[in-house]
Amino acid sequence: MARRAVRVDDFPNRDLLDDIAFGIHKAAILKTALELEIFTRVAEGKRTMSALARSASLDERHARALLNALCFMGLLVKQQNEYQLTPTAEAFLVKGKLTYCGGAWLNDFAWDARGDIARALRANKPILASPLTDNNETTRAERAAATLADWEHQIEWANEAWNKIDLAREGKKSLRVLALGCESGIFAFALAKQFASARVTAMDRAMVLAYARQLAEKMNVLAQITFQARDIFDLSDVSETYDLILIENINQFASPEQNIGLFRKAYESLANDGRIILRTMVADDDLRSEVAIWAVEILLRSSDGDAFTFAEYRGMLEAAGFSLVTQLKDDWGLITAQKLAAAQTKKLK
User: Fold this and answer.
1) What CA–CA distance (Å, rounded) separates 243 from 288?
2) Among candidates 252, 261, 235, which has minimal Cα distance to 335?
3) In the chain, helix, strand, coil percent, each to 5?
4) DSSP string of 224-241?
5) Residue 334, Cα to own-chain centre: how many angstroms?
6) In a structure prediction context, what are the per-residue pLDDT tens digits for the chain, which is 349 residues long?
7) Distance CA 198, CA 1 (A)
8) Which of 8, 87, 207, 310 has the fewest CB atoms within 10 Å, i.e. the most exposed one?
9) Distance between CA atoms of 282 and 333, rounded to whole angstroms?
10) Residue-wise over 207-231: b if at least 16 C-beta within 10 A, else e?
11) Element (H or E) spanning 35, and its range?
């Protein structure tokens, strides 16, 4: 879901600050419900306020306040004297379900760390786990698992992105695709559904790929996919040649030097006329996209990363040898670049 920047009023508007604070209250209530396993208890059949209070060791006054707040937030519904799960809560917030991602949300809240953001920014010292490390594997895996519940909705943005990229020329041949840091795989698998000739190598950490494999099966593209568990920022021993290399949501956590090194290896692994495609946060000059908020998150997880601008990504890609670097209109960030044969490169100069 795309989030847009808040409209600036021409008068002092305290409602703006109240809305920000209200979001904190809602996040705190969700965190509390996850820690008390409220959604799991409802799924187990404890649906009345008294049953939930006893099960969670709460008095009824406190239980009533929490449960009613969750109804307001759209995570529970109350029918007569019973509370029931909404489809969102049932899919993502019940422990033991394959698509549970409550742990990822709890990890993202990281209240103690986020309460000390000012000190972290001054010290330029990350306080949360980077997606590029083993410490973040469980969170990435839960997010991949969650896609099993809503992939038919998620595939809409993936198809829109591929329509913008326009693979009409590439689609006429057997496409060899490398998806690095694929997480759930939805972006690469959407391409595989469009082109039966596509053969995708999906690379991520082992725990993540376990769910990506299940998604490929659900999407009926498993026969087109090969899975390789590995460090998601290392192509040093890749010997195959590809027509497309997809890199998703990892470049913002790396330094420009690390990115250039990765792009250079990607360049070497591409066939002539092959393309690299980045789905990554791209800072916009008008500050209208939600990347402006997520840029702070990057600083909490990386001492070298940033929400780089398109000009910065273009510089990195060109330093690695790429040409025809193009930014496509997208709420998040979508960049393509091409490896041209030497003769074509000379013509551009």
Assistant:
1) 34
2) 252
3) 50, 15, 35
4) GEEEEE--TT--TT----
5) 14
6) 566 677 888 888 888 999 989 999 999 999 999 999 999 999 999 999 999 999 999 999 999 999 999 999 999 999 999 999 999 999 999 999 999 999 888 887 677 777 778 887 888 888 777 877 877 888 889 999 999 999 999 999 999 999 999 887 665 678 999 999 999 999 999 999 999 999 999 999 999 999 999 999 999 999 999 999 988 887 888 889 999 999 999 999 999 999 999 999 999 999 999 999 999 989 887 667 788 888 888 888 888 899 999 999 999 999 999 999 999 987 778 999 999 986 565 556 5
7) 28
8) 8
9) 5
10) bbbebbbbbbeebebeebbebeebe
11) helix 14-35
Checking phi first, is residue 183 left (phi over 0); if not, alpha (psi -120 to 50) or beta?
left
Rounded to two decimals, the pTM is: 0.86
The structure tokens listed for 47 are 């649906």
Question: How distant, in Å, are the alpha carbons of 27, 156, 167, 188 from that of 117?
Answer: 17, 35, 43, 35
Place of tokens 């099993």: 148
